[in-house]
Amino acid sequence: FFLFFFFQAEDGIRDLVRSRGLGDVYKRQELEYIIADYNNDKVYIYTAKNNKIGEFNIVNSVFDGFGAGDVMGDKYDEIILASQSAQKVFILSSNGAVLSSFNFPFEKGDRLAVGNVISTWNNDKKEIVISKYKEGKIRIFNAAGNQLKSINARFNMFDGLAAGNVFEQWNGDIIVGDVGFNNICIYNSGHQSSKPDILSELLKDSVH
User: Fold this and answer.
1) What is the model's pLDDT at position 193?
2) Which of 3, 53, 138, 141 could form a disulfide with 151 if both were Cys (CB 3.0 to 4.6 A apart)?
3) Which residue, 121, 48, 34, is CA-closest to 78?
4) Alpha carbon 8 to chain centroid distance?
């Protein structure tokens, strides 16, 4: 059997040979496990019961960004690939068809997440969030590739990036797992929250 670990529904999680995400790419009202395998250039889609229900070919590497979320506003979760080799962000359907793409200088150490981080409460479209560690910035895009916001953030190439509504506000939060300082920083609307140190301490107490 397979054992998966995930942080948020829209996030991409990587290891040495594959990236993973969660999304309702078939509009089944259920989340699917989405796995990009670098070894054979494939994306696999599984149900929660580990039944494979889809796959397609894709050229990807360990340095690419990978995630899922409804960035088109069509009630389907799209698959998002930020390609280092192509220097593009691709928005893919559940069968691998390219729905949209835009140029972006994605590099080794950059990270990608998907979430509703700056949209208003009645806007169902999610944004594409990319951290540029060399710039010390987190940049937020819509599906058309328009940059909606740029946030100054402490970030290095080993940190983690996620998006989710941590504080249950009208818009979501951007979460940075800071390896160098061993804490979690949370950004909302471009301002670092006063609560990340409290949150990181809670996590330290609960993880053994």
Assistant:
1) 53
2) 138
3) 34
4) 9
